[in-house]
Amino acid sequence: MLKKLFHHASSQKDCARLCCTKIENFGVKAGRLVIFEDVNIHVHCGQLTAIIGPNGAGKSTLLKAILGEIPHTGKLKYTDAKGKHTGNPVIGYVPQYLKFDVSAPITVQDLFAACLSQRPVWLLPVKNRQEIIRCLSRVRAAELIDRRLGALSGGELQRVLVALALNPMPDLLLLDEPVSGVDQNGLEIFYEILEDLQNNEDMAIILVSHDLNMVARHADQVVLMDKGVVCSGTSREVFQDARTRKIFGMLAEGR
Amino acid sequence: MDIIYDLLSMLPFDWLSYGFMKNALLAVLLITPLFGLLSTMVVSNRMAFFSDSLGHGAFTGLALGAILGIFSPTMSLILFSVVFALLITWIKNNSTASTDTIIGVFSSVGIAAGLMMMSYGGGFNKYSSYLIGDILSITQEEIQSLGLVLVVVLLAWGWIFNRLLILSVNSSFARSRGISVMLVEGVFAAMVAVVVAISIQWVGLLIINSLLVLPGAAARNVAQSVKQYHLFSVAFAMVAGIIGLVLAYYFNMAAGATIVVIAAGIFFATLLLKGKMAK
Fold first, then answer.
1. Residue A69 has pLDDT above 70, yes or no
2. DSSP secondary structure string, B135-199?
3. Which CATH number fits domain B2-278: 3.40.50.10470, 3.90.550.10, 1.10.3470.10, 2.40.50.140?
4. Which terminus of chain B is less hemmed in, N or C, by CB atoms within 10 Å?
């Protein structure tokens, strides 16, 4: 609990002690259409920031802008724990697996070996199987190593992708949660893994989520987006805000 | 080379007694593994339509080579095909129009411009062999250059494959791992373009794309891992190539077309097998 309180400490002061990432004035346009603009988010290591919002609010696009995948305005500033500006943070990314080609004959081990080494997977035997198993155990997925991607459940695939995003260990972890396809049990494990990362690794986590109950229970900071930041703060603050209720058309649970 | 020919003569097959059949067999043994390898990622990256357009682009390359006469016909064919492939890849990545529309446009332009130039002055007939292809007319020098291409493609495949695999799973994920999508897609497109360009006169424009799609599609039905995928794809392509060539010889049919029909047969067989495995 103390740790949680510490994470909630007001943002600016922490920067002296914790690494922090500032997303400043981010904006993305597609032609003349403004996807979002003036997005300012400030995240710290050990903090889980959840981004919520209606469909088409620009949540997934924001993650892609942070990744540098699409052109955007604004800057991403990263400062490490010693307070030195270190330029670009190492970013880990967990995409929405719904856009995955899961019918391909690729095993979990194939995908890992392709990501972690230069040895051509199609020709040479995998050398670092033990390392892969170690990575997978961290997300409780070691037994999945020889399964095909297509034979994994939504939650399992999501965990495998988290394990991949942790190699190399990122400063900033971006997660794009799928709208559906993960069962309740899978969700619980997923958030437990995130909690473990928050507590034991020096990284900030930004999560695009659709599950408001889970957000309310686990997020240190919640950002409500709709073409820009509508409001942000602790989950209680955001869920009690009238604008949140208006956008989601219901009473979201506070903590 | 002579040793290989002597070895082939020692095999107890009637059809191998002719020099042209020895050449054709060697060509098949070199071309089909190429197509088998590339086929895996053509299918995984949903590039069937793209590779089809490369054949059409090669057609324009041929015509340009004949008209300009700056390079040898093969050289201009390869150069133009690579430029054509890179151009499609670049526009695809920098335009909001859908991929199939862009490829469709290029494909049409490729075939139309090629036909227009070839038919200039009524000389189209001498090009018509490119439509169907004739593997029996391949020469020893051409076989040697095919061997060289196979070695180069194998090396390039070893270098780029892992990145291509990650890209085929999800492009955002690939970018987040520091993979340059443009570079990887460009190199792969250029490789396919080169292979299409050098083999189009043996396989034929009308059916060349089948060889880039069928082996991978069939292997995908039964493979459980990346290694199996490659193994099956190459094996299917080679088996179809050899059986097709022999049948074409005995029944006096176009070799390229026969090979494709056999490959299609393998595809449907694996499809049935997949249905059974699922049960």
1. yes
2. GGG--HHHHHHHHHHHHHHHHHHHHHHHHHHHHHH-HHHHHHTT--HHHHHHHHHHHHHHHHHHH
3. 1.10.3470.10
4. C
Asked if B170 and A92 come within 8 Å (Cβ–Cβ), the reply is no
**Domains in chain A, please, with CATH?**
2-99+171-248 (3.40.50.300)
Residues of chain A found within 8 Å of residue B40, distances taken between Cβ atoms: 122
Residues A193-234: pLDDT tens digits? 999 998 888 889 999 988 888 888 889 999 999 888 888 888
Lowest mean pLDDT among A34-38, A101-105, A195-199: A101-105
Q: Are strands A48-52 and A221-225 parallel, antiparallel or unpaired?
A: parallel
Q: Where are the beta strands (DSSP E) in chain A?
A: 20-30, 33-44, 48-52, 73-79, 91-94, 172-176, 204-208, 221-225, 229-233
B175 CB neighbours in chain A (<8 A) are 67-69
CA A3 to chain B, closest CA, distance in angstroms equals 30
